[in-house]
Write a structure and sequence with these properties.
InterPro entries: ClpP/crotonase-like_dom_sf, Enoyl-CoA_hyd/isom_CS, Enoyl-CoA_hydra/iso, Enoyl-CoA_hydra_C. Keywords: Acetylation, Lyase, Mitochondrion, Transit peptide. It is found in: Mitochondrion. Belongs to the enoyl-CoA hydratase/isomerase family. One of its GO terms (cellular component) is mitochondrion. This protein is α/β, with parallel strands linked by helices. It folds into two domains: 182 residues, 2-enoyl-CoA Hydratase, Chain A, domain 1 (Alpha-Beta Complex); 48 residues, Lyase 2-enoyl-coa Hydratase, Chain  A, domain 2. A four-stranded parallel β-sheet has the order 1-3-5-8, sandwiched between helices. The chain has a four-stranded mixed β-sheet with strand order 2-4-6-7. Helix 3 runs parallel beside helix 4. The chain is globular. The two termini are 32 Å apart.
Length: 246
């Protein structure tokens, strides 16, 4: 993300650019992991573009917030794992974007918060639903009700991020850690990873019995793959598997 004059805030043009990028990523079979990072030092995403929002009437605000919610849903629905590299401020819609990713890595100096209530708003791009799944209902309510900001260390302790790292002089420590994490995913069977993500995401939406049924359906799709056969052959032959995503 590279909108320096507006601290990567989510304006109409920027949001449409993100939609276009997601469309390309979704159908590119060469893509194995997606990392969301900022080219703007000290900020991941400052949230919605409130200067632009101030010029909208009520109907336009409702339509735009729905667009933001759809954007986060599109990020969450990408078939491959997604990682948010939070090297600076991730506030409001910026944190909601990170929450839409599968994994989050933050610099210890990063600042995160759903600060909407401090602006007379409430999280409208999925934050009220995704934050409780990370930190639990009670803590999610506290963070949303107070609009509190937390740093990377606090975020890790509450389960908001997977990893926190000390910031470096270049200001990209979280991105570097995210790349390391992505490289741990790359050797694994692509189709199995996709089915694992699908089973988790869909299973979280239903009761455990239905979730087990979803897992079974995902597993059944993986059984006839060449990668599963390769994994079994590599195990027998005591060699690293060579997965092709088929």
């Amino acid at each position: 993300m590279n909108r320096p004059h507006a601290r990567n805030s989510l304006g109409k043009v920027f949001v449409n650019e993100l939609f276009s990028a997601l469309e390309q990523l979704r159908f590119d079979e060469k893509v194995r992991v997606v990392v969301f990072k900022s080219e703007v030092k000290g900020v991941f995403c400052a949230g919605a573009d409130l200067k632009e929002r101030a010029k909208m009437d009520d109907a336009e605000v409702g339509h735009f917030v729905k667009m933001l919610r759809n954007l986060m849903d599109e990020i969450a629905a990408l078939p491959v794992p997604t990682i948010a590299a939070i090297d600076g401020y991730a506030l409001g819609g910026g944190l909601e974007l990170a929450l839409a990713c599968d994994l989050r890595v933050a610099a210890s100096s990063a600042k995160m918060g759903l600060i909407e209530t401090t602006r007379g708003l409430l999280p409208g791009a999925g934050g009220t639903q995704r934050l409780p799944r990370c930190v639990g209902i009670g803590l999610a309510k506290e963070l949303i009700f107070t609009g509190r900001q937390v740093d990377g260390q606090e975020a890790a302790s509450m389960g908001l991020v997977n990893h926190t790292v000390p910031q470096n002089s270049e200001g990209d420590a979280a991105y570097r850690r995210a790349l390391t994490l992505a490289k741990e995913i790359l050797p694994q069977a692509p189709f199995a990873v996709k089915m694992g993500k699908l089973a988790i995401n869909r299973g979280m939406e239903v009761d455990i019995a239905s979730g087990m049924a979803i897992e079974g359906m995902c597993y059944a799709q993986n059984i006839p793959t060449r990668d599963r056969q390769e994994g079994m052959a590599a195990f027998r032959e005591k060699r690293p598997p060579q997965f092709i995503g088929k």
